[in-house]
Write a structure and sequence with these properties.
- The protein is an alpha/beta fold.
- The chain is built from 27 helices and 21 strands.
């Protein structure tokens, strides 16, 4: 081939050279989109080393010797008189910026450039926590169908019908090579991984070992159990956000892999940020680990193939270590196709409703105030989850048209998760059966007793992580106070806290930002320090603050007080019988309030636990009559000071209240 074919390009084979072909060919100008900035940077760097600067251009956030590409840099690259076609290597999150910049310069991007979206399956699975990834497809569909392609060696089914119906070219070996896999089923994945790594270190004096494990706690647990003698020879490939967490365990967190793909350490762990795209030139003993104790470590057969393809010159050996849960609940869906159909149908109905409502509001100004409420309601409701996972949005706005559309990539990720939960890892035989279709698989079962299992190191790791987060909280508190005193500017908030650990930012910083207009800032920081790391306690504290910060005349609060006849209770003695309310009556009244005021989906949010929690956030209570009644004794169960200001009657309660995930 002299160029990559348009449409879906299903390589079936990792390391085939599709990206390199598109970079090298001089038939057309190209924009090549990849999932990670390290991959985009390294591909561009390699092209420039081979052909001289400026052969290609990396576009993304600053990386090593490459700064943020702006219009000036892009124009300089375009104006370089080297007679060569232009090749942009861009991280997915920066594609919109590049296209908008090229259009401002006067380039008809959708007709003058070829768009190649590489590692499309990685974008499908990663979109859950990187929502901008699907914006790439909004641009993709604007290109002529002959000027675009999506590429993967492990192509998945697409929920998006426009992608599923794209023309497709598939490459095949005349005789498909098979991987030799040692599959180990166990009850303690980390312990078996330690044993396997030690065995390979002892048997192979100089060979390198590559371990794929999407759990930093698991990686650090294995690292600690390997012993101090190996510490200097260990490297970890993970996202930059995790650097602080691993710095206390390694002497050298850099020099793990160079720009040529050579590993600088003998033992290298990698998380999901490196499961696709990265080229490793060393031959390694590959170990992939997946555990039901941390379901986000589950690896599909396609992902295992991608991981196996990271070592471009082949693997010395491949081992997969896995366990499965002992008790697996049955899904209400018969298969993944039925689940996909359900999700797409639900997303379509929400999208249709939102688009119609928005159009009606644009035509009638009197309906405009409803749009914020409806946006929040749908944003809150249009979610799905597999088992007890974090809820995932199945609705989004098209980046270009602003129409509401199904979040197809998120739906694809949910379907893949469903498949792993209810099929691949539901039975010890299933992973073996799936792998055996195209590979030579040797399997063994290796169980250890509870007494043999080492739990001390993971306990210490979790304690260390708790201490690290506590120290970070203490560093953040004066910064939050300073931001608060400077006027609570949104731009400066993003600059100050945009790169903070995601969990801490959402639970601590964002909660402070939401509640500080109503509660004394220093008191709020003290309370958040005590509550932020316990999901239930933080949720209840947040809801107690929100309810207390409403005036009694606020429509929601007024209904709560009226339904429980609170004004009358205030005039009664504390032990008066009318202060008692039965558990059944309490739950029914709370349910009626939420259904009438917030229109919450009854089957989804109004569980008995949710009702009980909210009631205790609204009222001070005492349990009476052997637990059959609650006695209402007042408001403000957190003993908060008077609000600095009251919550506006038009405020969005979906955004203020915190609901169980």
């Amino acid at each position: 081939m002299d160029r990559v074919p348009y449409g879906r390009f299903n390589k079936l084979i990792t390391g085939l050279g599709a990206t390199t072909l598109e970079i090298e060919n001089q038939e057309r100008n190209s924009i090549i989109v990849v999932p990670t900035k390290s991959l985009a940077y390294n591909k561009s760097k390699s092209a420039n080393l081979n052909h001289g600067v400026p052969y290609s251009m990396y576009v993304g956030s600053p990386m090593k010797d490459s700064g943020q590409a702006d219009r000036k840099h892009i124009e300089e690259y375009l104006n370089a008189r080297n007679g060569l076609k232009k090749k942009f290597l861009v991280v997915a999150d920066s594609l919109s910026i590049l296209i908008e910049t090229l259009q401002k310069i006067g380039i008809d991007v959708y007709n003058d450039y070829f768009l190649m979206v590489d590692e499309i399956d990685t974008m499908q699975s990663d979109s859950v926590y990187r929502p901008k990834l699907e914006n790439v497809i909004d641009h993709y569909l604007k290109f002529d169908h002959r000027h675009r392609c999506i590429v993967s060696a492990t192509m998945n089914v697409f929920s998006n019908p426009e992608l599923e119906h794209e023309s497709c070219v598939t490459t095949k070996w005349r005789e498909m090579p098979k991987r030799d896999i040692n599959l180990i089923y166990t009850n303690y994945a980390d312990d078996i991984a330690v044993a396997e790594i030690k065995r390979k270190l002892e048997e192979n004096a100089n060979d390198k070992i590559l371990i794929a494990y999407n759990s930093l706690d698991g990686i650090l647990n294995i690292l600690q159990q390997l012993g101090a003698q190996w510490k200097s020879q260990v490297g970890i490939l993970c996202s930059e956000r995790s650097d602080d967490k691993i710095s206390g365990y390694l002497d050298d967190t850099d020099n793990v892999i160079d720009e040529h793909g050579n590993l600088g350490k003998r033992i290298v762990f990698m998380t999901c940020a490196y499961f696709a795209g990265i080229d490793i030139m060393d031959k390694c003993h590959l170990i992939s680990i997946t555990s039901h104790l941390q379901p986000f470590t589950y690896l599909s057969v396609g992902k295992l193939a991608q991981i196996a393809g990271r070592c471009r010159n082949g693997n010395l050996s491949e081992t997969i270590i896995y366990d499965i849960p002992q008790n697996i609940e049955q899904s209400e869906y018969q298969n993944k196709d039925e689940y996909r159909t359900h999700l797409v149908k639900k997303a379509d109905s929400y999208a249709g409703f939102m688009n119609a409502t928005r159009n009606a509001a644009q035509e009638n100004e009197e309906l405009q105030p409803l749009t914020d409420f409806i946006d929040s309601f749908v944003n809150f409701s249009a979610k799905a989850k597999v088992a007890n996972d974090y809820p995932t949005k199945i609705l989004r706005q098209n980046h270009l048209s602003k129409d509401f559309v199904p979040a197809y990539f998120n739906i694809d990720a949910l379907v893949e998760d469903w498949e792993m939960r209810y099929v691949t890892y539901s039975n010890e035989e299933n992973l073996y059966n799936q792998l055996s279709i195209n590979n030579n698989v040797h399997r063994e079962t290796r169980f250890i007793t509870k007494e043999e299992h080492n739990s001390d190191t993971i306990i210490r790791i979790k304690e260390n992580e708790k201490e690290r987060k506590s120290a970070l909280i203490e560093e953040l508190k004066p910064k939050l106070l300073d931001w608060y005193s400077q006027g609570m500017d949104n731009v400066s908030y993003k600059q100050l806290f945009g790169e903070v650990d995601k969990g801490i930012k959402e639970k601590f910083c964002d909660t402070f930002r939401k509640l500080c207009p109503y509660i004394d800032a220093e008191r709020l920081l003290t309370d958040l320090t005590e509550n932020w790391d316990d999901g239930r306690k933080l949720r209840n504290y947040n809801n107690a603050v929100v309810f207390w910060a409403m005036e009694d005349s606020h429509p929601f609060k007024a209904q709560v007080l009226a339904r429980f006849n609170y004004s009358k209770l205030q005039s009664l003695p504390e032990r008066h019988p009318e202060r008692k309310i039965s558990i059944v009556d309490k739950k029914q009244k709370m349910k009626d309030i939420f259904l009438s005021c917030l229109k919450l989906p009854q089957n989804k949010m109004l569980t008995e636990d949710t009702i009980t929690e909210f009631f205790k956030c609204f009222f001070k209570t005492q349990r009476a009559s052997g637990g059959r009644y609650d006695r209402i004794v007042g408001l403000n169960p957190e003993d908060l000071p008077l609000p600095k200001k009251f919550i506006d009657n038009e405020a969005n309660l979906f955004e203020l209240f915190s609901f169980p995930k």
